[in-house]
Amino acid sequence: MSAALNNNVVGLHTNRVSESISAYLMKVKRRNENTYYNYEVAIRRFFMWYKNKTLEELKVEDLDILNEQMIRYQAHLLDDYDYGHNYVNALVAPIVKLYEHLSRNRYNVKAEDVRLDKLPDDGESYGELTVREAETMAKLVVKQKKGQEKSAIIRLAYTTSFRKSSLLHIKWSDITKDRSGTIYLVKAVGKGGKAHTRPISEDLYHELLKIKTQPYYQRYNDDYIFHLSKDTIRNMMNTLKEEMHITEERNVVFHSLRNVAAGYIKETGGDIEEIRDQLNHSDYNSLKHYMHKDTDYLNMAGIRMNEEIEDEILEGLSREELLSLIINQNETVRLILKREAKKMINEKGSK
Fold first, then answer.
1. For 270, which of 20, 194, 274, 313 could close a Cys bridge (C-beta 3.0–4.6 Å)?
2. What is the pLDDT of residue 347?
3. CATH class of the domain whose range is 131-291
4. Strand 195-200 relative to strand 175-177: parallel, antiparallel, unpaired?
5. Which SS3 state, helix, strand or coil, does residue 135 take?
6. Where are the domains of the chain?
């Protein structure tokens, strides 16, 4: 193609980039409405990061890109937003498809400029933490600098299952009470721009309020609850893992706190729908490690339905045997039993 003809082709596309992207998304929409929505969100997000422009503002020169800039975008999604590999792959793929479309329509771009090696499927399989370990972290971290704030964000993380990026964007105005006026609700925006609301205890709410009493906190007036950098949170976790002798092989990171409640639900007999709601997932693909991990055939419905155990079975145990039975349960079951025992003791004391 001659230089003059090439310039004419480029000229034809000047100020028409948004129309070309719109035509591409129209094709996607005809195939699948959900895919169209996800692709549009991913493409808009990328160009807002890359050029700080909406799709309607883009010009031909804004499409020029080096592959190393895509590598930085991938790192931005992984490090700044704490997204799992699968979601990052899903955000990058529409960019590659778009550049393929633009190349076929005579834009001077190549899909290779934005193509990245696919990150390995992690199923968000970060190292697991038990409820007890998460609670211990919240207690130990108090002695660190900004300890009250760090303790509160740890507790809020494993209680709500919000991602780190969502937690850091929560404002005081995002905490409200339900219609009964007895339960505190926290609203956060998750990946894909989806809002998610989770309840928190009155005790946790008052722990959050204690942040406002810290002397350093008086300099903030932006309504955000937390003022912790990503490096601060990473260093916090490294220190806690060292104190608690959590080995690197366990792959425990701050994101591990997000999955604590899901693990609790699984261990206490909750179903996959409850886990999906807790984690605010729109599909089941990211939950396969909860559905298929550590298959326990003895506890499957087909066995449990045909297993008859009389209600009086526990009466045949001595006090010591009952205590031994409780102590030998997993940590989550013990925690449930202790909470129920505390409730019963408190009720007796109030009579």
1. 274
2. 83
3. mainly alpha
4. unpaired
5. helix
6. 3-113, 131-291, 313-351
What is the pLDDT at residue 260?
Answer: 83
Token pair 């220190």 in the structure block, residue: 239
Burial class for 32, CB neighbours closer than 10 Å (0-12, 13-18, 19+): exposed
pLDDT, residue 7, reads 45
Complete DSSP assignment for 234-268:
HHHHHHHHHHTT--GGG---GGGGGGHHHHHHHHT
SS3 188: strand
Q: Are 34 and 119 in contact (CB under 8 A)?
A: no
What are the φ/ψ torsions at residue 30 (nearest 5 degrees)? -65, -30
* The dihedral formed by the CA atoms of 46, 50, 53 and 56, expressed in degrees to the nearest 10: -50
pLDDT at 117: 92
- Specify the pTM: 0.58
CB 167 within 8 A of CB 152: no
- Give the start-end residues of each E strand in 204-324: none
Tokens at residue 75, please? 């790192």
Q: Is the Cβ–Cβ distance between 169 and 15 less than 8 Å?
A: no
pLDDT, residue 6, reads: 46
Q: Are 236 and 150 in contact (CB under 8 A)?
A: yes
Cβ atoms of residues 63 and 101 within 8 Å:
no
Contact present, 184 and 175 (Cβ < 8 Å): yes
pLDDT at 154: 96
Which residues of the chain register pLDDT less than 50? 1-14, 284, 291-295, 297-298, 300-306
Q: Residue 100, by phi and psi: left (phi above 0), alpha (psi -120 to 50) or beta?
A: alpha
Inter-residue contact 286 to 123 (CB < 8 Å):
yes
Reduced DSSP (H G I as helix, E B as strand, rest coil) percent helix, strand, coil of the chain, to 5: 65, 5, 30
